[in-house]
TrEMBL record, chain A:
UniProt keyword list: Cell membrane, Membrane, Transmembrane, Transmembrane helix
Predominant subcellular localization, coarse grouping: membrane
Keyword Lipid metabolism in record: no
Cellular-component GO terms for this entry: plasma membrane
Name assigned to this protein: ABC transporter permease
Molecular function GO terms recorded: transmembrane transporter activity
Protein's membrane topology: Multi-pass membrane protein
Presence of keyword 4Fe-4S: no
Membrane-spanning segments: 6-26, 38-60, 66-88, 95-117, 146-168, 199-218, 234-260, 272-292
PANTHER family the UniProt entry points to: GUANOSINE ABC TRANSPORTER PERMEASE PROTEIN NUPQ, SUGAR ABC TRANSPORTER INTEGRAL MEMBRANE PROTEIN-RELATED
Amino acid sequence: MALTETLQFAGTMFSGAMRIAIPICFGALGSTICERAGIVNIGIEGMMLAGSFGGVVGALVTGSPWIGLLFAMVAGMLFSLLHGVLTIHYGTGHIISGLGVNLLASGVTTVLLVAIWQNRGKSEMVGTLPTIELTFLKKIPFIGQAFGSFSPLFLLLLAAVALLWVFLYKTTFGLRARIVGESPQTADAAGISVPKMQYICVLLCGLLCGLGGAYLSIGDIGMFSRDMVAGRGYIAMAVTIFGAWNPIGALGGGLLFGLAQSLQFRLQQSGIPVQLIQMLPYVITILVLLLVRRKGGGPAAAGKTFDREKH
Amino acid sequence: MDFVQMRGITKIFGKVVANDRVDFSVKKGEIHSLLGENGAGKTTLMRMLYGMSVPDEGSIILNGSPVTLKSPSSAIEQGISMVHQHFMLADPMTVTENIVLGYEPRKGPFFDRKKAEQQVAELSARYGLQIDPKATVGDLSVGNKQRVEILKALYRKCDLLILDEPTAVLTPLEVKDLFAVLRSLKEDGKTIIIITHKLKEILEISDRVTILRAGKLITTKNTAETDAAELARLMVGRQVQFEVQGAKPVAADAPVLLEVKDAELRRRGMQLLSGLSLQVHAGEIFGICGVEGNGQTEIIEAITGIGQLSAGQVLLNGQPVHKPTPTKMADRGLAHIPEDRGLRGLVADFSIRDNSILGYQRSRRFSRRGVLDKKAIEMHTRQIVSDYRVKVGSIDDTAASLSGGNQQKVVIGRALSQDPDVIIAAQPTRGVDIGAIEYIHQKLIEMKNAGKAILLISAELDEVLGLSDQVGVLYRGRIVATGAPADFDEQTLGLLMTGYHKDTEKEERPCLETLHSAFAKS
């Protein structure tokens, strides 16, 4: 049956796309909430890396990958707190601070790698989060391959998307956060504490990035390797823009990138030079960003330091 | 008893003393004007009353008891609200979201949008401030944005409303509406403070007026017991000349230096200029009257080479200019005072020194083989600063650090120091205080007397009529009437500007509504 085979193939592709999309979507969600509150965060990469490392350490120390997940969130938040203090409290340029976070995260994790495992490249293996198996789906073409087994972090991602969307558009807190990113002066004049809102959003970003990073280590291969985020944090930032600073857009954008990546793996056997095919996801990202020109272009005050006394 | 008392308020920014032991008090239920030139410290004083900055010295007493206003929220709790000159609104959000911000009605953790919209609708009906609660703020006209700001204050149940330069951005019709609203608020028992430097408005709306000059309190007066001349003198610190003097008549054989022939401009299906023609002679000021949005910007852009015409010609010194660009026009002796100095006049974050040569940086006076001549530029800047009495700390300060009037002096000084033949002066005194206006007018007259041709475009009718030798009335992209200022009375001019024209009576006769919408749009 050709149809069944095609469906099965599509299902496998989708499942692959999902696995690639999970960390990127978490990063994009973090970046979305952060930029909505006016803080540009190119430190996503570093915060994810901290999450990957924290996850492995947590799993090693406690023996439970679930507690590793908690460690990952805390690690991501620590680095986001640093970004927050630098940009919100000290008014450092957001790009500079984000770059600093990335370099620091790369350095700190490498040093700790040597300190703990005496290895510059990778950690020892730890337990991974168990995958969720839905055996009763396995027989159905497409559905079976796509949703038959998946990481619990995928469920967490869907929950995070929904929660964040409700938070941003349905709660007073979200309204305030969005206004802070759009016009901090307006928020300030309305008696809203701009720094408080920004700290909360930056920390939330760190938490989400930590989860994204944790997927790469304890959600997938069960170990940490040096600089294992490998640019996914930057892809997440592109996905943020593509998703028009909307959590649902971030999910869609991440999945699209995942599909492109998944397609790329398949096409590597087709005889076309591998180097060309490996470019595919990135070319698609750039093309989509070029084609989908959003009006407005994001929160107006993103990246600008707010200072009440300056007017 | 006084509702608000500010006692001995001092505020220092770096080396600048913005407020120097200022005493200021307001009675319950009055409209009180705070008058002063740009940089006199009016806004600084009011920002402290609204908790946006904290006084270095002095105390604030509200209803008899001293208060500490550390942040806007503490001021809002005390019933104080402020409408800022640059509106504090988030453009992509709706009217309702902007109004209820910080005090949102909620159901649990959720924002109760329905209730909020209902409250806003009720409020706007009650005070006659019509507005659609669901509209996006970015789509509103400036006048309507201001309504949103006032509604925001009312939503927070303010007793004291501070308005910072509320009329600066409004059309005459919108000003009328605003004043009607303010009067009804006063009847409702609200106390209102208006920051302004427009004398006419003070005399029209306020009960009392307090004058600040250079950060110091000059005096407080009952409006009924004063007049424009006295207020101007108190504000500037010397006698102010309202009338322009010393203008020489245009010579009978003066050559035409600037000519526009049959200018046509269509853009996105809109006819922006339709057969506009005008001539400006040497030693003449040609003023353009018109409701904004009738082609002023487009004709300025065409003459200065920023924009292009669909058809028609621009002639300088009798020579047609082929495909004008700003550089080409400047090289041929055209100087441009742009209508929006923030947009086209200055780079706010650049130093005054750099701004003083902007657009002329390629000139041999300022550079050799692409390398800037620091000494020559410094001399040039110092010349402008002294010739135009620009108040600066250092010429290396940013343009943004100057007050509006001083910024405009830099722009005008830069344009006029190039010894041009033709000057395009667009809104030369917009957002500039009386002392500087007087000075800028005097400079324009000097240029005219020196034989320059000046095209003056201004939204201030008094300015156009006072300075010009000839005026042209601009309506829908063409000049519908020209003559000496004395040929028009105010009423005729008003009718011409809104399309009632003898010659066009048969073909187009706009009804009163289009007349109103023409005002509203501008």
